[in-house]
Amino acid sequence: MSTLSADPYRTSLRTVADWGLVAIAVLTLAALALPVGALGGAPVGWFGGMMGGTLAPLFLIGVVLAVVAGRSAPKRVWGAWVELGGVALAWLLPLHLLNEGVDLSAGWGLWLFLVAATLLLWRVMGVLAGVPGWTRSVVVPGLFGLGLLVGWEVLVRGFQVPAILLPPPSRIASALAAHAPVLWDDFRQTVLTSVLRGYVMGCGAGFLVAILADRLPFLARGLLPLGNLASAIPVVGIAPIMVMWFGFDWQSKAAVIVVMTFFPMMINTLAGLGNSERIQLDLMRSYGAGYGRTLVKLRLPNALPFLFNGLKINSTLALIGAIVAEFFGTPVVGMGFRISTEVARMNLDIVWATIAVAALTGSGLYGGLALLERATTAWHPSMRRR
Amino acid sequence: MTFPNPLDAQEKAAFRQGSEKSVAPVVVEARKLSLVYPTADKPVMALSEVDLTIAKSDFVSLIGPSGCGKTTLLRVIADLERPTSGHIAIEGMTPEQARLKRLYGYVFQAPALYPWRTVERNVMLPLEIMGLPKADRQQRAREQLERVGLVGFERKFPWQLSGGMQQRVSIARALALQPDLLLMDEPFGALDEITRDHLNLHLTQLWRATGKTCVFVTHSIAEAVFLSTRIVVMSPRPGRILDVIDCNSLPRERTLDIRESPEFAAIAHRVREGLKEGHSYDD
User: Fold this and answer.
1) Could you tell me the sign of the dihedral formed by the alpha carbons of A62, A63, A69, A72, in that order?
2) How confident is the model at residue A11, as a pLDDT?
3) B positions 147-186 inside 8 Å of A (CB)
4) Hey, what domains does chain B have and what are their CATH numbers?
5) Torsion sign (Cα): B226, B227, B233, B238
6) Is the pTM of this model over 0.90?
7) Which of A287, A300, A302 to mutate to test the interface with B (most CBs of B within 10 A)?
C-alpha cells in the first residue's frame, strides 16, 4: 500500500488507478446484462420477473457494499476480511439459486459474476498471505482449500454433472456420515492394523540394515543396486504373491508395505549417515569418542532430516501399498476391498467417501510427521524461523 | 640419518638455548617426522624430516604459506593423521594414547559447533563423552563461557551468534576439557581484522592466566609475533621447518601496543625474511 508513495518515479497510468478493482467492476457490470439462469426453460435475469423472482439483488448489493467497505477500511488487512465476506456472499448466490430450482447451466451472467468474485478472492488472499502468523500459515491455505471445494460443488451442480462421474463434495460428505460405521471398520483394518504394522516393520528394518551397511561397506555395495530393483517392482505384481505367501489377513498387506518401504528408508538413512562433515568427525575423534558415541552424538542427529524424508515418503507409499494389496484378497473389510467391491456395484458414493478417508489419512500421517520433523530438526537451515 | 640437514644446527642451537634457559618439561617432541600423501599422479610430501620440541607453557606458532604442512603437523600431534616415518611423543606418550587420554583440546578452522545443540550444550559435548556427571558439566561449561565472555548466551543456538562468538564458543569447548595442550588451527582465519585483534588479545590473556601449552597455526605474521613465545617458519614442497624464532625480546604479557615496538618489528622482519627464503627455492 505504501509502494506508491515510496517510489514516485514509477507513477504512471499503471499505478494511478486500482486496475484490478476496475476489472472486477467491468466484469460485474457485464454480468448484470446477462441472465443468471433459466427457470422452466425461460431465462431468469438478475432482478427476476414480476412475480417475486430470486434474492439475487440482495446478494449483489451485499457484495458491492462489502467491496466499498473493504476499500474504505482504515487498514488494508481489515478491508481484506470484509472483502472476503463479499466473496463468500457471491459464492453463496449459486447455491441459493439452485435451491430455488433455477437451472444455472446457461446463466452466463452468474458465471461472469463468479469470475469477478474469484478475482476479488485472489486480491484478498494476496493481502492475507502477507500477514505473518496463523493467518499466513493456516487461514490462507484453509481458505484456498475451501474455495476449491465450493468451486467444485457449484460447478458440478450448476452444470448438472452426473454423480456417477463426479459427485459434489456435499454428497460425498453425506455418504461419509451415512456409512460411518463401515468406513470406520475399513479404516481400522487397513490403517490401524496393516499400514501401521507394515510401516513400523519396513522403516525399522530399513533403518537397522542401513546402520549395519554403514559399518560393513560390502553390504551397502550389495544392497544399493537391489534398492533400484525393488523400487521398480510393481505393487500389483508383488501383492498377489504376498497374499499367497502370507494369507488374506493383515500379514500379507504388511509384507507388501515392507517391500515398498524398506529400501527408501535404507537409502535415506545411509545418505543421512554420510552427511556428517569431516571437521565434525575429527572433533569427535579428538575427544577419543568411539563408533557408538560418534553415531549417537553426531551422525544420527545429522541424519535426522534424511530420516524424516524417508519416513514421509514411506507414509504415503504404505497407504497406497495396503489399499492396492487388498484388491487381491482380504477378509471382507478394508479400504481397498471396499473400493473394489463398491465400484463393481456402481455404489460410487461410498467409493468417493473411502477415497476421502484415504486422502485425509495420508495427509494426516504426512502432516504429523512434518510437525514432528519441525519439532526435532528446528535447528536445520531449512527449518529455522525466519 | 647421516644426511646433514642444513637447518639441523640452527634448530639444535634453538633447543639448547631453550633448555638452558628453563627446565620446563617437554610436551611435544618430534624427530625426523615425515608424512607422504599418496595422490593420483605422484606422492605429496606434506612433512619432511621435521624436528620440533615444544616445552610446557610455550606458545608456539606454526607459520608458512598454504601447503607447507603446518596444519598437517598439528593434525599429526592430535593423532588425526599418522606420520609415514619418524618419531613423535606427546608428554612421553604416542599421539593416540594422548588423544584417548584427552590431553589436548583442538580448535578447528571453522567453529564446528553442532547446530542442534545450544551454546551451553555444545561446550558440554566433550564432557558428556568423558562421562562427567551433569552438575560438573554445567559448572565447567559456565566457567569456560565466562572465560570467553559469553555469559547470557547459553541458551542460544550457534546460528544465532556472529562468527567471532561462534569461534569463542569453540575455544570454550576446547578449554572445557581442561587440557594442558591447546592445538589451534587458524582459529581466527575467517574473521575480520577487528574481531581478530580482539580475540588475539583475549587468547594471550587466557594463555597467561592458565599457563597452557599452545600450538597455533596461522598465516598472519602479525598474529604469530603478537601471540608467540616461539615462531616456527615452514616452507612447502616438501613441508619442512626453515627457521625457529624466539620471541623472548617481547614481554610475556602482551598488549596491542607492543605491535608498535621495535622488538616486534624486528621479529616480524625475521619471520618475513624466513618466509621469503622458503619461496625463493620453488618460484
Assistant:
1) negative
2) 60
3) 157, 159, 177
4) 8-103+181-282 (3.40.50.300), 113-178 (no CATH)
5) negative
6) no
7) A287
